[in-house]
Design a protein that fits this description.
By secondary structure, this protein is α/β, with parallel strands linked by helices. The protein has 14 helices and ten strands.
Length: 298
């Protein structure tokens, strides 16, 4: 916890990602999406006057860059005006885990000031539980910063795109049975429970609830920063039996969540209790279901 907090103070992000690594990864994902779509695609950085300032979890740069590609593909098809910031792109906040309000305020202010500097219309937060809670809610208080623009989860953005017809989706492209895990920081602490379900019912052929759900759901076992403290892993997995039984009872092949901590926590539970399922996120399922518009006639 100390080391990660130190990295946020010293580098502006919790995994000490250099600017070179950040830009190289974004360019790599841009090339991947261009190859998939067969047309030019942008993943802009520090573009002024965009509607969306998109912030991410450093884990996406280090370990899960495809989530950035999924977002870029969807923004492209939705014809969104968007950018990532060159500084202030890390929405994760170890001030929340450590109880350090000074760190919490500094990290959140980096995001808010990036949106102000670039004149963005809204801040959109990628799938991250504590990143959503800290950036959408506590961060404004810690930073003593007035909320100047809407601040929302990318899942809220996806729900709006589908509802307004900005993207079209085909649920048959996700034929596996899917259940949804409500992340503690998003559901209990953020009251964001219906939008992910609205999206999943549109992009999946077989969506099924686990019980209990929404604000009564069981933790993935990785909450409160425990996932980053290896000495607690045996205890986490011992008490995870109730979560494993909850997952098994759904009979689903995929468990979807909108939190990177939960991705890792659930993967640990699935491996430990030998469950026949995989972990996915809402962006991945939406990108898979995305119906590309027909090319304009020449």
């Amino acid at each position: 916890m100390f080391n990660v907090s130190r990295d946020q103070w010293e580098t502006g992000n919790q995994m000490a990602v250099s600017r070179e690594e950040y830009i190289d990864t974004l360019n790599w994902m841009r090339e991947e999406v261009e190859q998939e779509l067969g047309q030019p695609v942008e993943i802009p950085v520090d573009r002024e006057g965009c509607e969306v300032l998109y912030t991410i979890n450093p884990r996406e740069i280090k370990f899960d860059p495809r989530s950035i590609a999924h977002a870029a593909k969807i923004f492209h098809v939705a014809r969104e005006s968007w950018t990532l910031p060159g500084w202030g792109w890390d929405q994760t906040n170890f001030g929340l885990f450590s109880g350090d309000d000074r760190l919490g305020g500094w990290v959140a202010r980096n995001v808010y000031e990036a949106a102000r500097r670039l004149g963005a219309g809204r801040i959109v937060i990628s799938e991250c539980g504590h990143g959503y809670r800290s950036t959408r809610w506590e961060g404004y208080d810690w930073a003593e910063f007035d909320q100047e623009r809407p601040t929302e989860s990318v899942v809220v953005t996806l729900e709006r795109y589908i509802r307004e017809g900005r993207i079209c989706v085909d649920p048959s492209r996700n034929p596996e049975s899917v259940t949804f895990h409500d992340s503690c920081n998003i559901a209990r602490s953020g009251d964001l429970v219906e939008e992910p379900r609205s999206v999943l019912r549109r992009v999946c052929s077989d969506f099924r609830e686990m019980h209990p759900n929404r604000t009564e759901n069981y933790c993935c076992t990785g909450g409160s920063g425990l996932l980053s403290m290896a000495e607690y892993r045996p205890l986490r997995l011992e008490v995870a039996r109730i979560k494993a039984e909850q997952l098994r009872a759904t009979g689903a092949k995929l468990v979807c969540t909108m939190c990177h901590n939960c991705v890792d926590g659930l993967a640990d539970v699935i491996k430990c209790y030998k469950l026949d399922m995989k972990v996915v996120q809402v962006l991945e399922l939406t990108a898979r279901a995305l119906v590309l518009p027909e090319p304009a006639a020449s």
